[in-house]
Amino acid sequence: MSPLAFLDNKNILILGLGATGLSFARFLATKGYSFAVNDSRAHANSKPLARIAPKALVIKGAWDKQLIRQADVILASPGVDINLPEIVNNRKADSVLIGDVELFSRLTKAKLLAVTGSNGKSTVVTLLAHMAQACDIKAELAGNIGTPVLDIIDNEPDVVILELSSFQLETMTSMQALASTVLNISDDHLDRHKTLENYRAIKLRIYEQSEFAVISREQADASPAELSKVATSFGLDTPKEGQFGIISKDNMRYLAFGEQRLLACNELPIVGQHNELNCLAALALGYVAQWPMSIMLHALTSFEGLEHRCKLVPTDDGITWVNDSKATNIGATLAAIDGLAQANQHLILIAGGDGKGANFTELASSFDKHVDKLICFGKDATQIARLKKDSVLVKDLTEAVARARSMAKKGDLVLLSPACASLDMFDNYMQRGEQFISAVREGI
Questions:
Q1: What is the C-alpha to C-alpha distance for residues 274 and 61, in angstroms, rounded to an integer?
Q2: Residue 421: how many CA atoms within 13 Å on its side-chain side?
Q3: Which of 31, 127, 252, 380 has CA atoms 20 to 30 A from the CA of 188?
């Protein structure tokens, strides 16, 4: 039976008119299926859809209860909260609700490597793609990053490297990955998932859909229940046989596999212990996939990292300015602070934005230990500022940079790592990062 048989002669409804919704539409139109589309946003752009499927019914401005009641198959974009009463209370009991990665998983014959976690997953999957290219392996990067996954279905890659968000894992049951990992789990998206326990359970589903697990030794509750599936692990401690970790010798730190030193950490172009951990995770996944270790290590030395993720802003003022706008949750900011802080360097932190319901108290210990001055802006600035005495509240990011400059001396580190989403003041974290860069450069 065709894996698409469940779509035949069915009422198909796409929820969401963003990039994923349009990829659903392209896929269905190519296969000859008719469908309807619903988006709760009144101003959602439906012009691209009109070119893809001019006869498709489109309803915008609210979740349409009648369309949902009529649907046999609901294809949900990850940005759509499938637990909303308008959706849950109006679905047929026997309707099918899946996301794009679930549909892709039912169709693809490619080998899959899957990565999730609250932080670091974009760096790890991009690094994996970089290493695959160096190994002359035809790889596609998809999921929560890059091209919508259904748009690569006909490309016939050797391996698909999937970055998976909790929103995508929520609608997945059929992935059969070769190997997967949960990098870490911290407060994120609790405005949608409600509790950390529920969020963790959704993340851990990735292991149920993988042949092998690659686990972090840094966080026990990010491990699978079935430990017999564990192929290897990674952490910042000294590794045992068959594990990836760090060996310290003669005041040098090395990425290591068991007792074997692989690469000096000072040869990595991305800085901080959190990035050492990202490199170890990528090496561990590549190891399970049987990629050549020597080529992977050489590729590490040429990886430039992601924009807006612990990236230096070049200046000649003697101050180290770091743009970590991609730190949209508490865990990412903790990783940046702990990874970059040095005993002989003052650290001025700029943080704030929309915390998405997170409990910021987890930051307090790191603030006390590593942060010398705290500057806060955005929707949840007051909550964050309460965590450190003499914090400074400002109206926007431009003022935050100006205040940081007035405080900083040569040799100091100024870190933008918001611990919050950006949508209270910006279109996205990229725009926030660009404004930070502009403000830094305009002041020198």
A1: 42
A2: 15
A3: 127
Tokens linked to 120: 């670091």
Cα–Cα distance, 368 to 351 (Å, whole number): 15
Contact predicate 135/300, CB 8 Å:
no
Listed as own residue / partner, the contacts of 190-195 with beta carbons closer than 8 Å and 24 or more positions apart are 190/356, 190/357, 190/358, 191/356, 191/357, 192/81, 192/83, 192/167, 193/166
* Burial class for 407, CB neighbours closer than 10 Å (0-12, 13-18, 19+): middle
Residues 19-75: pLDDT tens digits? Answer: 999 999 999 999 999 999 999 999 999 999 999 999 999 999 999 999 999 999 999
- CA dist., res. 316 & res. 309, Å (int): 21
DSSP-derived 3-state class of residue 413: strand
- ∠ CA 195-228-163 to the nearest 5 degrees? 50
Q: Which residue has the tokens 């796409």?
A: 14
Q: pTM higher than 0.70, yes or no?
A: yes
Residue 439: other Cβ atoms inside 10 A: 21
d(C-alpha 235, C-alpha 218), whole Å: 6
Task: Produce one character per residue of 115-131: b if its CB has 16 or more CB atoms within 10 Å, e if not.
Answer: bbbbbbbbbbbbbbbbb
- Phi, psi of 70, rounded to the nearest 5 degrees: -80, -20
Among all chains, which residue has been given the structure tokens 């949900």? 76
The catalytic residue positions are 121, 144, 189
Instruction: Quote the Cα angle for 79-330-364, to 5°.
Output: 155
